Amino acid sequence: MRVLVCGATGCVGSAVAHALRSREHTVVEGSRRARDGRLSMHVDFMQACEPHEWAERLCAARIEVIVNCVGILMPSRRQSFERVHTAGPIELFEGAALAGVRRVLQVSALGAADALKRAPMPYLRSKLLADDALARLPLDWAVLRPSLIYGARSQSAALFATLASLPVIGLPGRGAQRVQPVHVYEVAEAIARLVERPGELRVVHELGGPSALSYRDMLAHYRVALGLGDALWLPLPMPLMRLNAWLAEALPQNVFCRDTIELLERGSVPAVNASATLLGREPSALAHGLAVTPPEPLVDLRVQLSPLLAAALRVSLAFMWLYTALISAVLPQESGVLRLLARCGFEGSSGIAVMVFSCALNLTLGMLTLLRPAPWLYAVQCAAVIGYTVTAAYNMPELTIDHCGPLVKNLPVLALVLLLWMSHAPRSTPANAGGRAVLRRPTANTHRTDARIMGA
After folding, report:
1. CA 158 – CA 173 distance, rounded (Å)
2. Residue 169's closest CA among 255, 242, 238, 232?
């Protein structure tokens, strides 16, 4: 068949185009920019196009089926929800009806069905209006509403990979929001099968992975796929997360925004998961999907040190903590620690008490760095370095301009702690969606997605 794939350069569209070509269909790539050597059609929903004009173009290109994969997560000055999700697709759908196109498949969004029942969300509402307009037309159609899509070119997957790679991961609330990620290759395979299915469709399908899991568990899977060790999980109040999302909207990115937080808070789990029915098998688990297409963070924070170098850096860091504790405890007058504490307002018995606490803390940090390095330990060390530095700079400002740099030297110490923290190797894999089973890399017996698609 001759299929027009709108949004063919995006995450879902490119996977759909490949899946259809692997099944020997002729794909006409619809995008805002033509690609050399490809059969293409200019499709820009921001530019109004009357249905009769679409009909002429579709007839001229001999289009039999249309798959609309166009979508944006955030509006901008050049792209709006009203045009990209609603008005533009509706003009195309009406033109398809006039041209006698056999079938139209619309990739919508999970949660669109409730867009008018809960607090209105422009993103979901714009998708629903196009879905409803398509359903009223005299042609065959299907609407697919997938959960979180991950895999090659997925912007949301890149965002999650970036968040998962941080040493301290902020969670919206407790991170218990339910999600059911589905691989883009399997979404594409489901669409390809619907393109080929005989008979009338006129149906809405919700798609998801094999099982639901929490947002925190999903990020833990991403972290394992990145080869990273344990992280510190920091629950954040939802108002603070929304504030962060509002600030992020001013950055040059088009994924993280207040609507993203709202969508996550609503959950992304299909009411009836049609993936197994459309694929003829269970969809792949998140661990396997991430092994097939490793996540690519927007900013790669992964650090890999040789065991010998890592050990040498840990020993040097531990020596600093142990030496500081020893010299302060054995030579409190000669080392000048009591004079420094007096400058900070701790004199007499209070100065002795603070010195004992500081020596005990430094001794503990040094011993644990040698024997039991862990993410929380490096976090405490970062806090200690920053705390000592700020306290000394506030009470003894002359140290900040001392030519020997007694405080400035803490900056490379802090960098060393962060380096060891980021390179901390995983000791175990996280629990799966059920919370206890251990993730493993796929084996020869592990289910694999359609080889025609996964072999790209």
Report:
1. 22
2. 232
Strand 213-214 and strand 178-179: the pairing is antiparallel
| Run of H or E residues at 389 | helix 375-395
pTM of the model: 0.81
CB 26 within 8 A of CB 50: no
Q: What are the pLDDT digits (tens) for 308-340?
A: 999 999 999 999 999 999 999 999 888 888 888
**Nearest Cα residue to 112 out of 249, 215, 259:** 259
The helix (H) or strand (E) run that includes residue 141 is: strand 140-146
Identify whether the C-beta of residue 208 lies closer than 8 Å to the C-beta of residue 145: no
What's the distance, CA 253 to chain centroid? 13
pLDDT number for residue 118 = 60
**Pairing mode, strands 178-179 and 149-150:** unpaired
Residues of the chain with pLDDT under 70: 36-37, 115-120, 425-456
How much is the pLDDT for 209? 96
Q: Which of 86, 152, 179, 118 is nearest to 295 (CA)?
A: 152
* Nearest-angstrom CA–CA distance, 93 and 54: 9
What is the β-pairing status of strands 168-172 and 178-179? unpaired
What are the chain's domains?
Answer: 1-146 (3.40.50.720), 307-422 (no CATH)
pLDDT at residue 455 in the model: 38
